[in-house]
Design goal:
Length: 385
């Protein structure tokens, strides 16, 4: 099953941004007119499981329950994955077809950004569609296969989908259900006006299908996720969109062409590990345990994982932990040590060093740079007279 990041759920009489197109295949992703409350229900986050409208009929996997209770920190950190799980559980309980729900975060002349959640799974067929604008989408949860004239790639959390206007493409969920993205879209004129100032050649398109989790994009990816949780102003979203467009254009020019491919069954094995790491940031026992989960020897798993994701398992896991830490620093006032431990680091000095290397600033300095909330100071104790 497939969905275009340009598609949209119509809200209370407003027409969808795009007209329906003819599709290849017997089934298509259902994009229907719904009420505003229904369209945004995937993105409303309850304080407890019992507050959610699906609570009476849906059992959320135990691995996600801890994200839905307790302090504000775990709630914010788990909101993206939990919303996706609730949407998938709702679909299973109701027997509904696959859906794509979209919440517009901001828009301006020539650009827009939206939070997009898809519930397609292995039982849904993929079929061809077409990008109408330049698309740069940060994958925030789940995984899927993406194919365009620029190549074939496995999209995982922290990676970036790239698409050019007029390109036909397919997205599929052959090995696991659901994904969520923060999708930036630009008209050709707007995008060329941005990257034309930094282009070293006359080529102004995006030559690859995907950017893997990269250090040069780490800060922008974390900022996009943080802003989607806390809500950015139109000005901050546009600035982030411009920075992401330039950084993605530069990174894409250095990436190898043709996408990532592997032996038969490799995507399914790697996807199994990716989904495990989403649930458990400790790494599941290291390389040997990941290889066992994938059903491969450590050597072959290492090569296969790197070929399909663009990074080694250790690099992928470290970037996932640091991305979670950066989002928490930007969205909640928890202590740095609590964030470090909650993100899978067992030593504060190692966390500080790794964070500075990845984001170019110490954790507290990063929090100040992105305008994250400071820790609440305790009330002074009353003095006796």
């Amino acid at each position: 099953m497939h969905r275009d990041l340009g598609d949209r759920v119509a809200v209370e009489g407003r027409p969808p941004m795009r007209r329906g197109r003819r599709h290849v295949g017997q089934r298509r992703l259902e994009i229907r007119s719904v009420s505003r409350a229904a369209a945004e229900s995937f993105f409303q986050y309850p304080r407890t499981l019992h507050d959610h409208p699906l609570a009476s009929s849906v059992r959320v996997p135990s691995a996600f329950r801890w994200l839905m209770v307790g302090t504000r920190g775990p709630e914010i950190l788990g909101k993206i994955a939990t919303d996706l799980e609730l949407a998938l559980a709702g679909r299973r309980a109701a027997g509904d077809p696959a859906r794509m729900a979209e919440r517009v975060l901001a828009r301006g002349i020539g650009w827009s950004v939206a939070d997009v959640l898809c519930t397609a799974g292995p039982s849904d067929r993929a079929f061809e569609e077409q990008h109408e604008v330049v698309s740069i989408a940060i994958v925030t949860a789940g995984s899927f296969q993406y194919r365009s004239p620029a190549g074939r790639a496995l999209l995982t959390p922290g990676s970036v989908l790239l698409g050019n206007p007029g390109q036909a493409f397919e997205c599929g969920h052959d090995h696991a259900a659901g994904d969520r993205c923060v999708a930036f879209r630009y008209t050709s004129e707007y995008f060329e006006g941005i990257v034309g100032a930094v282009a070293s050649t006359g080529r102004l398109d995006l030559p690859v299908a995907r950017l893997p989790p990269l250090r040069e994009l780490a800060g922008l990816v974390a900022s996009g996720i943080s802003a989607s949780l806390g809500g950015g102003t139109t000005g901050s979203w546009e600035e982030l969109g411009v920075q992401l467009a330039v950084a993605s254009y530069r990174a894409a020019s250095r990436e190898p062409r043709g996408g990532s491919t592997g032996p038969a069954g490799a995507e399914a094995r790697v996807t199994r590990v990716i989904r495990m790491l989403e649930r458990d940031r400790t790494g599941g026992g290291g390389l040997s345990q990941m290889a066992e989960t994938a059903g491969l020897s450590p050597y072959h798993f290492l090569r296969t994982f790197q070929r399909l994701t663009g990074s080694t398992p250790h690099q992928y896991l470290m970037r996932q932990r640091l991305r979670h830490a950066a989002v928490r620093l930007a969205t909640e006032p928890a202590r740095v040590i609590d964030i470090a431990l909650g993100s899978g680091f067992g030593d504060l000095s190692n966390f500080n060093r790794a964070f500075r290397t990845e984001f170019g600033a110490a954790p507290l300095g990063y929090r100040r740079q992105v305008g994250g909330p400071g820790r609440a100071r305790p009330s002074p104790k009353p003095t006796r007279r």
